[in-house]
Design goal:
Layout: H1 10-23, H2 28-39, E1 47-48, H3 52-59, H4 63-75, E2 79-82, E3 96-99, H5 109-114, H6 144-148, H7 153-159, H8 165-182, H9 191-206, H10 214-243
Antiparallel strand pairs: 1-3, 2-3
Helix pairs in contact: 1-2, 1-10, 2-4, 3-4, 7-9, 8-10, 9-10
């Protein structure tokens, strides 16, 4: 299987996965399947043996959802599916999924919208958003009640000095979706964690450290932050289980 590998090192694979998540406009099902494939493409770098049924079971979705996601990823040039033929009995075996090492990133709708995002220093933060954003669905100056009914006040306090309402709404959607996908407690947005993550994103964007989409960078930042919390919770549960005697270890010395 070494001949099918698309990456030379694990670091190279990880950097490519991060690039795709931040720069390619993926549907949620495509994003979930792509991340799953990347986690199962380590033994042979960039090559996954996962079957569609197995992926559907892991992600707890319907088989058709996985098939549509794979088709979308292949159409975008992110993956390649190879059918294998049984040597002895003939016919097709399960397919291999290869993560392509290069993806052509065409201009995205998100990038066009992000062009209207403007940062200001403290002296000009309250000024009207540039004329580019006047075509957005909402405007910070004349539709405040619209966004206030949809976004919590604490999130508005972080983002409103820097973004127009359209961008804020999409950022809030990304935050909610990240918790739904990665958190063990869906739909429960942690205010403290989100506050730190969003401030980090704003700082990076303000200092031009984001090379791709603002929304993709926010998604990746939220995902990493949630992963850290989930790891800590899992470790705490294990410690509590051991302390309460709910975990029995196999006695390797006597058996």
């Amino acid at each position: 299987m070494r001949e099918f590998e698309t990456f030379n090192t694990l670091s190279e694979l990880n950097k490519h996965v991060q690039f795709v998540l931040e720069n390619v406009d993926l549907l949620e099902r495509e994003r979930s399947v792509f991340m799953l494939l990347s986690r199962y493409s380590v033994k042979f770098l960039g090559v996954s043996f996962l079957k569609v049924d197995t992926m559907a079971e892991i992600l707890n979705v319907h088989k058709r959802t996985v098939q549509r996601a794979l088709k979308g990823l292949e159409q975008k040039g992110i993956i390649k599916r190879l059918k294998r033929i049984r040597i002895k009995s003939g016919g097709f075996s399960s397919s291999l999924t290869l993560i392509n090492s290069h993806v052509d990133v065409s201009p995205r709708q998100d990038d066009k919208k992000a062009d209207s995002v403007r940062f200001y220093d403290d002296k000009t933060a309250k000024e009207t958003i540039s004329s580019l954003s006047k075509n957005n669905f909402v405007n910070n100056n004349d539709s405040s009640s619209y966004i206030e009914n949809r976004v919590p006040a604490w999130f508005l306090n972080i983002t409103k000095p820097f973004f127009d309402n359209h961008v804020i709404l999409k950022m809030w959607y990304k935050v909610n979706k990240a918790f739904e996908v990665y958190s063990s407690i869906p739909y429960n947005v942690d205010e403290e964690l989100t506050h730190k993550a969003v401030k980090s994103v704003i700082y990076s964007y303000k200092h031009r450290k984001i090379r791709g989409s603002l929304f993709g960078y926010l998604w990746a930042t939220m995902r990493n932050a949630i992963y850290d919390i989930e790891s800590e919770l899992a470790a705490q549960r294990r410690r509590e289980a051991i302390a309460n005697g709910n975990v029995q270890f196999f006695n390797w010395l006597e058996k």
